[in-house]
Every structure is written in structure tokens, then in C-alpha cells.
Amino acid sequence: MEKLTSAKALSLLTEEIIVEASDYQKRENRWILHCIRVGHAARRIAERLGLDADYAEALGYIHDIGRRINHPTHPIEGYYYMQSKGYVVESGICLTHSFINNDICMTAGVGPKGEINAFLDQYLRNHPVTVYDNIIQLCDLFCEWNGYLTIEKRLLDITKRKGVTEHSKQHFLLALQLQKEIETKMGCTMPDLFPEIANEDLENKEKDYDTLLSIIEETNKNKVKKVVEG
Length: 230
Prior knowledge:
By secondary structure, this protein is mainly α.
């Protein structure tokens, strides 16, 4: 089958869910807006890097496509869904998008459990990270359904919702490192490339950074305390 295009990816993403324009405004469809925003951001970064921008956009559109089937298991659902459509290579982004550098420990919040965890771990170990993986992994960490944020603000929100693990601090710092590496390759900063990021968010970067680290460290300290006292 031919390589996935952004037009086809958008069609697969919205099929039978977005029937009319008003469907984009439904709360349950915000994940689709997030995917679209990730796709647009990935295109912009890929263009700056001289890569296949349409392909990057397509991968951004489908990274969370498994949510049309089941939210908690969306990585594996998306993987099999894209495979069923014949996009074997592209299906991998559904598995890699949440794990920086394809490391199963480097994810925000508590990761997958049980058989899904075992399958993911094996897949990620056997698939070397690509530049497109990194682009989508980064975009997923600063794209909300309604706008572009700083990584600090986005991860602070995710951590408050999904909780803290022993790897949360390392994941946060690695996310910032990934951003820096891509900025260096692009020759510009993320705020330069994405002027839509609110000035307020940029001004609060250090505060959000400190708050997030404080939450992580305090939570892990309490976990250790409970184990000792337990």
C-alpha cells in the first residue's frame, strides 16, 4: 500500500464521527481536535527540518486514532486499527507516540498494565526511534485540543490528572531535552515557530517547572514514607 497521506489520515480520523461541522464542538470529540493540532504542529516542524511534512502531519492525525475504539487502551487499539486499514508501517506511531525515544518508562502518568504493557515493551524494544517518532512525541506534549502550550504547562496538567511514578521526573526532563534537541536542529525555538503559545504561559515557564518538580518529589517522598511506615 502507498504511504499514508495527510488527507487519508484525516479521513480515517474523522470517519463516522465528524458528520457535520458542529461535531467538532462536542466535548467527546476534543481528542480529534488534539490529533489535528498535533498533525499541524508536526507539519510545521517537519518543514523546518526539511523532512516529509505531509507524512509528519499524517502521523500526527492518527497517533491517538485508537480512541475511536477505546480510550484507556488507545495505543494498541490504534495500532491494530491502522493495520486493518493496510498501513502497517504507520500503525507504529499509535504505539510510540506516548513514549519518548521509544522507552516504555518515559511516559506521562501511569503507563499501561498487563498484557498490553508486555506487548508495548516488546514492540518498543524492537523498533529503533525515528525522527518522525520524536516529532510526534514532542508535539503530543505541547498540543492541547484548543491550543499550543509550553511543555511545562502541559505536563503539569497531565501529571495532576494522571499521577506520578518513579519515572515522572526523568520523563519531564527528557521531554525538555527532546525539545532542546529539535530546536537546535531547527535553528529556532518553539515559541519562534509557534507564536500562538500565550505570553502568559511563556512567562510562567519557570513557575510551572518548579511546581511540577515539587509535585513529583513530594509525591514520591510520601510513597517512600508509606513503605517505610507500612
